[in-house]
Protein 1
Amino acid sequence: MTGPDPLLVPAAPLAGDVDVPGAAAAAGEERAARTLTRSPWRRPLAVIGLVVIAAWVLIAVFAPALAPYDPLAQVAPKLLEPSAEHLFGTDNLGRDVLSRVLYGSRLSVPLALLLVVLATVVGTVLGAVAGYFGRWVDGGIMRLTDLVFAFPGIILAMAVTAALGAGLRNAVLALVIVTWPSYARVVRGLVLSTRESDHIQASRLLGASALRTLAVDVRPTVLGPVLVLSALDVGNAVLLLSGLSFLGLGARPPAPEWGAMVSAGAAVFDSWWVGLFPGLAILTVVLAFNFLGDTLRDALDPRTARALRG
Amino acid sequence: MSILTATGVEVTYPGSGRPVRAVAGVDLAVEPGEVLGLVGESGCGKSSLARALVGLVAPTAGTVVFDSQPVEALRRRARPVAQRRLQMVFQDPYSSLNARRRVGDQIADALRLAGGGGRRRAPAAVGALLERVGLDPAMQTRYPHEFSGGQRQRVAVARALAADPSVIVADEPISALDASAQAQVANLLVGLARTEGVAVVFISHDLAIVRQVADRTAVMYLGTVVEVGPTATLWEDPQHPYTRALIDAVPTPDGSGRLPADLPGDVPDPAAPPSGCRFHPRCPLVTPDCSSWEPVLRVQEPGHAAACILAPDRGAPDRSTTGVPS
Amino acid sequence: MTAPLLEVSGLRVRLPSRTGAMLPAVDGVDLTVHAGEVLGVAGESGSGKTMTALATLGLLPHGARTDGSIRLAGRELLTLSDKQLRSVRGREVAMVAQDPRTALHPMLSIERQLTEHLRHHHGVGRKAARDEAADLLDQVRIPDPRAALARYPHEFSGGMRQRIAIASALAARPSLLIADEPTTALDVTVQAGILRLLDRLRRERGLAVLIITHDLGVLSSIADRLVVMYAGRVVESGTTADVLASARHPYTHGLLDALPEGGSAAMRPIPGSPPALGAVPSGCPFHPRCASARDTCAADVPALLQIAPGRLSACPVDPYAPVREVVS
């Protein structure tokens, strides 16, 4: 059959004898990859996201130099309003809120990233194993994901943290347990669908083992969507971690953790600055990662976007 | 001696309800260096048979023997080295190549798997393969989307050639291509058979092409081979009414304005095939016995067999003649 | 002779490239189709044949520019509003595309898709519409048409869906059917049935058909006249019998030579591939692939000249070349 007439053919970017116009129609996937590497930086939301993330990373690195006071020291009378001395005021123990917010980035951002990396690795490995081995292995892992999905994430994380004992390390562990299944599902689905594709079958016929095709042919297909999912999830992780700390299950006093600081602020509601500034910090980080993740998702082809939502 | 033989091959898929017997007992033999055409309407089981021949699906009954060794269905382990000389070319060259990797890397992979030299020799060897299929060796650094459909199919053939195949099973290799590309790819495959002795199983629903390229032709209907014989004989003097109907349905580009003949009815559901001869509900020559008597392939003349009540046995009652040419 | 039902003259379609340049996809095409006539358009992909069809339907991609004139039953289509065009598409012109997946709405039953036009545009009652729809399904050879009406597109195979798409195009009782590679994906047996159906409709109902395909066999069996297109231009036209039996243009020769002829001779494909949009060679667009090209071919665009009554060819090299022997 003949391909459609050249609706989609770019003017002349394909040099040489790329001659049958229909050929370009199949280039969608490749084009998505190119968009991913090039055009996101032209999108305003992605740029804002990147700038905010970069700013927080710099703040985390240079917090000791940037913070005007020791975040743990009582440097002033408690609950001072924002002033030139204390830009964000002081909290209920007389600590400088600005310094604590700046130092807080050293906890929230790296821990959220660690959490997402751990969940991605665990989920990807288990999902790939499920898709690759199939049968009872697949059944077992998928029932496990069902089990996790059956509970609201934060409730399950609370239960696990409570069982392991409150603390940031246990909070991260609990959240890994809550978040890996979504990666496992996506990866398993992609492995299953790619495994049946013609080019994998062709590799198998040429003598590649199933494991080798998984590494060479399936991996690139899986990486893009997983990357998007991870990027979208960092914001979520920051939120969940702060949430656990807010509930008193994560960071323990006097650690300057944003969620715990919002919690403290809620106790002294009239002194709005105690809770507002750490809350804004959470908001900016979550939004920044969501902007970035959304842009990545849009850049990938619609098929993968659908797979992610499903 | 035949390089590839199928004996009593059946392929059954578990369907919702009753299982679907896509291939219902096929005997076939492929000789070295020949082009065997396999034709039939969609749903006749020719693709399932192709997959069973190379081991992509496990036959539920029967055996496939390649180069004196039984073909094992693919599992997780790598395919035995001896069987890598049994290769396949798929219908859609857009999906049979990995869109994210350079074609040269994909062909080099195939060469490595075939044990063809180390990493350093790869570019030259890849280039040589591309030249064999009529492409510029310099194209190996390109990605699949930078090729036209016909060129991609040639890349797929080059990749199969990396395994130094003695049989290539080509499942509708040209039906996704433009007219002039069709001729180019068909000529390429036939050339491999003529000049390099590669046996080619050429599966297509386009009878005119098969008539052109195949030495022998097997006609499939609803999971069984109903007629097999030398292409010229089969075309001039078809013994099975289904073969005749297929041939008469091909429009000829002679400007005569003659409408192709119609074959009423549709291919029945393979999960519930008709009793007796599977073709009898659509057959223009149906007899009262056809619904109760299931015909087997019977020899018409050496190398030509048909499964029809109206084609009585004229040769030795030897089941192995099925598919073996004169 | 009566006035043609469809009269396309000087049609030019330009498509926007990524850089914003307008690239000619159709470059001055003239066509006529009379009621009850089947006009075949042949050519490789990229020849502009699909764009010509889409222009006729007012379905060109966003940003495309169209010049020239397309008259249906005397009415100029290019100046119609989108709304008026929709009504033309609903009542007078229907299209069958190559890909059956896009032709049918996945969420609507077959009955709904086949009877909607009849009921809304032709005021046919529910029961009569259902009868007519079932009859159409029967004609495109869907087994058990009554039961099929209640089903949804995904319940059918690709070949069946294409046949249903053809039925739904015919359900609007159009006076002109535009069919773009309608049978390319189908088995020859089904193809034969559909060609016979189209032939009967044009004789019984006076349906005019513009059929676009690269399959010269299909065109030979059903088309009264042939138009061969290359790189957005008509290079040869005439009655089907004339064009196929005595092709004048080297491109038409090339298409015929690429066909399997049943003998032992190998198919001789045209070397190279058709030019990409915006990369059309100077002069005669076919000259880089043409065996009989001369130096002058690269310089001047050859005019489409009448070489016999009703017979046009755009090759100045040897317009009265000896008639090609047909091998059948």
Note: The first strand of chain B starts at residue 4 and ends at 13.
Protein 2
Amino acid sequence: MVRYLRDQIDPRWAWAPYEPDSERPWDLRLAGHVYRRAGFGATYQELQEALRAGPKATIDKLLQGGDGQEAFDRECQTMAEAIQAQADDLPLRAWWLYVMLYTPHPLREKMTLFWHNHFATSQAKVLNVAYMLRQNQLLRQHALGRFGPLLQAISKDPAMLIWLDTVESKKGKPNENYARELMELFSLGIGHYTEADIRQAARAFTGWEIKQDRFFFNRTQHDATSKTVFGQSGPLIGEDVVRLCLQQTACASFLARKLFRYFISETLAPDADLIEPLAKAFRDSNYDVKLVVETMLRSNLFFSDHAYRARVKSPTEFGVGLVRSLNGKVGTIGLAQAMENLGQKLFFPPSVKGWDGGTQWLHSTTLLQRQNLAQAITSTEDQRFGRRCDPAQLIKQQRVPEQDDAAVVQFFVDLFLQNDLPEEARQRLTLYRRESAKHRYPPFWTEEDVREHRLRTLAYLVISQPEYQLD
Amino acid sequence: MIHRRAFLRNAISTSGLVAWGCTAPRFLQQTAAATPWLGEAGTKDTLLVVVQLTGGNDGLNTVIPFKDPLYAQYRPTLKLPTAPLPKLNDQLAVHSSLKSLADLYEQQAVCVVQGVGYPNPSQSHFRSMDIWQAGSLADTLTEGWIGKAMAKIPKAQGFHLAASNEAAPLALAGAPAKVPSLTSLSEFQVRTFAGSAQDRMQQKRIIEGAAEMSQAKTPALLDFVKQTAVSTYQSSQRLQEIAKSYQPKVPYPASGLAERLKLAAQLIDADMGARVFYVTIDGFDTHANQLDLHANLLQEVADAIAAFYKDLAARGHGHRLLIMTFSEFGRRAKENGSKGTDHGSAAPMFLVGGRVKPGVAGEHPRLDRLEDGNLVHHTDFRQVYAAVLEQWLGVASKDVLGGTFKPAAILA
């Protein structure tokens, strides 16, 4: 699905800040786009506020996060303490979805998810809820910080030490697993290191252990002899290898590419010229993640057709976004279970490469599971989600004139698809809205029952449009 | 009085589960029996089932040169005691967990290809897996060898039987119609809201219609979503019908891989015309404490494949069936210090079926001639693919593999 550009994009234009004009006015469509990428989608109120505030102020707010972060973090910490005592990982997965749904700082959560996919560690092998939780908090702490300290910290993170067998690596018997993935997946990418670099680097991580649930450097198991990595020789220790990785020019462009795919497009393979300004910003700023994310979010390219709907929603984006758009307050245990069927069980990435994402998210079964989850949530009849994600309530709250079929359709199309749907599809939905008034309903339903049922069905049909699968 | 909510719940859980597909697509109506056996390209009714061992299977502890003193020397803690190993001949044995495959070997239904790999092997899981799945060493790999082969077979259909957290494999990309991924038949259906038959029909039309609607300028990604949706909705109804009736001829073990292969057997027996099936089993990246882990994985593989083969053979499909296993690489000849093994290169493949050339193909890679500590391949994996393509699927291998590879002698 990767589309190679024939017409080169001018990098200066691409990364310059977007200013609305008559060709690309600031509208619902772009407001929805910003909220999907920098967060997990918008509520109706957020969309309206964004329209009033304009792109700059909207992005300012998303970069900073909203009010009440400290209180929210304290609340989450209290819950986390209860979770980590349990052996079951389901509460942990539900906890993270809760954070995503209700956080005042969605971009921080979005980046935490990015790093979870980047440093993909699975509970399937770690088998320690407390370690997985701690890693998640580490990723959140550094989510929009500097990549250097994050890479150093993750190398010593207990879940990671188990996941890639660093704890098994002893003097004279190095285990290559961590050294390889550090270079291949965490910092440089294939082609920017040699097999010899890996074998030598592996020796630098010997003696890295866990003691009393903390990183512990065991001198007696550490190979203190000289190693040569990227042409640098000496009695290197693990931190030196991480530092050497950060010094490679490939590191900044590797990260920039990955962020490009996350925030801009999964279908556009950016050439070196387009990536270089981002990579340079990384290098010049000592790997300031927030700076590069901000550059991308404000850019012309971000607001262009190259980026618009150029990603497939991940299951998490789909599920969390759906609940958010309905102002839903749901318990997240059921949502966490549903995520598994959609193909993204958080804390259980399929491999250290993480989820491939893009078109890989969608196949027959996962598509059906997405539709079925949307049906379950909008129906208000599913015990997992209850009545608190109710499209009918929303219509009432927003005082949409229900007798006006076109207005009702328009409201849901605005809410879920930000008014971006082909005319023909809109007509079919309006026709269904009209027809559904004439359908037979069980005689014991009240008028109110029928009214709500018709609204919920319509909401589901709007969500089932193919456009909704795209981010 | 029936409460409205009870009515709804009831309706949704039973008749409310509307299966899709007003017209079954051509491939679903076509039966294997209707496909003539002409013995030439593209007209066969042979079945290919690929079993992917994800993570890098330790070939040296799978097919074991038990007489070679270097084996014991390289594997001080991981060497397997010789006595209980099922022997293939006087030099070679297989892991004791592979007992059920060894039994099929006795029955002339197994070909073991040794020393399979490719030049300048990559020791990245992901790069090497892409290479194997694409059947190519090109820098950028976007299509799979099976997907490309399917483009050459008229009306080709296949299924990916997926685990719940598993994406569609690159191997199947490039097929003319998107290959459906199934995790179970019972969940392969879309719900509509409860309502009258007419209401449901209208809901269905809107959902299906949205996928089928064509626009003048559909962006590539939206087009992809629509294609996936069309193929999904169309397959669903027929699959619901076959779900009810299957009784295996032999018991399948209780494992994920066995469940997925049983689903494949069900689809094969339903004569839906699909010829290619793809399943995976993960967990072979045994860097530490490998002995038990590896034994359990091989047990799952062997027992699932044996049950699947026997089930289909009992239904008269044995001669149509070819099961092929592969992994992205083998592992380092010498064990590491963690009672495990690091990434390696050459490794064996298994072919199971009624018409394989039974026995061992090729020598075991020499343990005294390692390259960077790894076993050296003598058979390119594309030679195995070439045999499967040319002699089994009836497809010119050059078109798929982008070059000429001498087919390995694996089929009778």
Note: Strands of chain A lie at 208-211, 214-217, 227-229, 232-234.
